[in-house]
Design goal:
single chain; about 170 residues; alpha+beta; 10 strands
Amino acid sequence: MKALLASIGAAAIAVSAPASGAGSILFAGRAWAAIDRGNACVALTRAVRIAAKGKVQATAGFSFTPDRRRWGEFHAHLSHLPRPGSTVLLTVGDQPFLLVVGNGWAWSRGALQEQAIIAAIRKSGGMRVEGREVGGGRFADRYELAGAPTAIDAAAARCALAKFSRIN
């Protein structure tokens, strides 16, 4: 039952995610979903803690584009606005990654870091994104990784195929 609810939750964030339209769901399993949005394919999840009404729901994922301009780019919509000049850290298992921050979002720093993050996800059970909020307090958005490798692979495969042929 818990797995079913997690799959429904993953599908719900996939459909409700505003970034580039809802798109079509390629995979929804455990805590993750893969979505084809036409111009990009994404693997998405939401934080374990569900945001209160009116608050930002923390989400994280990976983006792939058929032209490979983004290929495994990590992104996180943060639950709190980070303090200007502060750092935001992604920790997968026990491996830390310093992220680029802007306007309530955080991103990976490039292809090598993206490959390392995906490799760490394949052998870890959880991840967190943490930093200092504007008021000075700390925040940490925690994520489950069950279903992440399959969602990432599904998004990457769909965009790789889209480069060579039109997929409907």
